[in-house]
């Protein structure tokens, strides 16, 4: 089964917690801090891998998480970093965030984007030793890893795309010119998924994609065309197959007009690409069918007459397709892919709430993520941190007054103007 679009729900690993630990010795009644720090949580990456063909695995299991970091221990034993999560996707996969912004276009093997960042590990009490804080009695909790949903969409990477009405002979042709084995039958919409095949002609090779049949209105969502038009976007050249058989009620001229109009409505760029036009199933065409007259009516230099069943006209047709692919390569450099470097998030933001104020952001949440805020030394340390990163100033500028309720994460406290009180001047790490 070919799956070309899925939504995945991802979570980076949580950071491990630091620990409070001491080794006591003569002359050091408070003990020497030896609490280790927690390990960072694993990051989440999405990487293109040429061995992956579809997104089916993510449709079946859309939830994935990186590993958490482990907690620190005594004797300065730091926690182990969590293992990163790498989601392998087919070449040609585009990645969209929850806002619908494309953050990556992965077209080469090994290209990857960091989707989510793991939480930082919490510092053990040994990490907070300073000249004025010889025996810290606190440690940090680990940060939570980021979590978000992403949409993965794969667009086939092909040199040439076979396009035509349903039952125009695309599947039969690709099975005749390559090792691809698509399902074939004599009724419309046989092809429910794209098929790729590698074609060798002389010393040249190119990849051809059999795109499900387009009908009038495909760009507006009619039939199956809307689901697969995006695959045509990646093809360097287009191969337009016209069906002259008696069972086809639409004339080749009308088929051509409809196909090009649907391509134009989907993307004007598609019309400008090199294309080869061929009369497919020529063994079923009327004996007096004139391909030269058809080419003149369509405004094309030539319309190839081919039959995959009886192997008629295949070789010159394939040389023409290879020439079109070569011309496209010369005219336009290959896609290098795309990785969006997302802006660094604000350290924190202040919002008014019905009950007071809320401060959000990783820097503010990190500042208060300590093990026991009921300990005076710990509370003083947190107060200094908030003042140092500018939270107090931001609250004052937003209009906070002494006694207002302030929430940071799960912590709720009363705001007090730091200018009105004296805070321990201990040096921070």
Structure in words:
The protein has 429 residues and is of the alpha/beta class. It folds into three domains: 5-154, Distorted Sandwich (Spo0b-associated Gtp-binding Protein, Chain: A), CATH 2.70.210; 160-331, P-loop containing nucleotide triphosphate hydrolases (Rossmann fold); 349-420, GMP Synthetase, Chain A, domain 3 (2-Layer Sandwich). The chain contains ten helices and 21 strands. It has helices spanning 56-60, 170-177, 225-232, 252-266, 268-271, 291-298, 314-331, 362-367, 376-389, 391-398, and strands at residues 5-11, 22-25, 28-33, 44-48, 63-65, 85-89, 93-96, 102-106, 112-116, 147-154, 160-164, 195-201, 204-210, 237-242, 275-279, 304-305, 338-339, 349-353, 356-360, 405-408, 411-414. The protein has a six-stranded mixed beta sheet. A hairpin with a 2-residue loop joins strand 12 (195-201) and strand 13. Residues 182-192, 217-226 and 422-429 have low confidence and may be disordered.
What labels would you give this structure?
10 helices, six-stranded mixed sheet, disordered C terminus, Spo0b-associated Gtp-binding Protein, Chain: A, 3 domains, about 20% helix, GMP Synthetase, Chain A, domain 3, about 425 residues, alpha/beta, Rossmann fold
List the helices and strands and how they pair.
Layout: E1 5-11, E2 22-25, E3 28-33, E4 44-48, H1 56-60, E5 63-65, E6 85-89, E7 93-96, E8 102-106, E9 112-116, E10 147-154, E11 160-164, H2 170-177, E12 195-201, E13 204-210, H3 225-232, E14 237-242, H4 252-266, H5 268-271, E15 275-279, H6 291-298, E16 304-305, H7 314-331, E17 338-339, E18 349-353, E19 356-360, H8 362-367, H9 376-389, H10 391-398, E20 405-408, E21 411-414
């Amino acid at each position: 089964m070919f799956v070309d679009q899925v939504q995945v729900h991802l979570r980076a690993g949580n950071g491990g917690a630091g620990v409070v630990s001491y080794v006591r010795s003569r002359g050091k009644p408070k003990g020497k801090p030896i609490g280790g720090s927690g390990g960072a949580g694993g990051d989440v990456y999405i990487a293109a891998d040429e061995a992956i063909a579809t997104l089916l695995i993510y449709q079946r299991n859309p939830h994935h998480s990186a590993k958490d970091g482990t907690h620190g221990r005594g004797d300065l034993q730091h926690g182990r970093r969590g293992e990163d999560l790498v989601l392998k996707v087919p070449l040609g996969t585009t990645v969209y965030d929850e806002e619908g912004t494309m953050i990556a276009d992965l077209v080469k093997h090994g290209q990857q984007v960091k989707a989510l960042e793991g939480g930082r590990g919490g510092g053990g009490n040994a990490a907070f030793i300073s000249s004025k804080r010889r025996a810290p009695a606190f440690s940090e909790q680990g940060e939570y890893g980021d979590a978000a949903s992403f949409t993965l969409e794969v667009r086939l990477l092909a040199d040439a795309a076979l396009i035509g009405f349903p039952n125009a002979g695309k599947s039969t042709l690709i099975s005749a010119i390559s090792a691809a084995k698509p399902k074939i039958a004599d009724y419309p919409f046989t092809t429910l998924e794209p098929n790729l095949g590698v074609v060798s002609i002389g010393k040249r090779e190119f990849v051809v994609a059999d795109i499900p049949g387009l009908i009038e209105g495909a760009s507006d969502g009619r039939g199956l065309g809307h689901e697969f038009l995006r695959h045509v976007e990646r093809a360097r050249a287009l191969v337009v197959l016209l069906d002259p058989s008696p069972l086809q009620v639409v004339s080749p001229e009308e088929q051509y007009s409809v196909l090009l109009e649907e391509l134009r409505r989907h993307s004007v760029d598609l019309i400008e690409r090199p294309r080869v036009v061929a009369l497919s199933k020529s063994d079923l065409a009327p004996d007096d069918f004139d391909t030269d007259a058809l080419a003149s009516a369509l405004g094309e230099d030539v319309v190839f007459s081919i039959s995959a069943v009886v192997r008629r006209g295949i070789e010159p047709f394939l040389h023409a397709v290879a020439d079109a692919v070569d011309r496209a390569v010369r005219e336009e450099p290959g896609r290098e892919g795309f990785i969006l470097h997302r802006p660094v998030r604000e350290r924190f933001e202040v919002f008014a709430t019905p009950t007071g104020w809320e401060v959000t952001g990783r820097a503010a949440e990190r500042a208060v993520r300590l093990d026991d805020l009921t300990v005076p030394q710990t509370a003083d340390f947190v107060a200094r941190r908030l003042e140092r990163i500018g939270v107090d100033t931001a609250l004052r500028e937003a209009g906070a007054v002494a006694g207002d309720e302030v929430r940071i994460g799960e912590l709720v406290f009363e705001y007090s103007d730091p200018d009105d009180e004296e805070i321990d001047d201990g040096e921070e790490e």
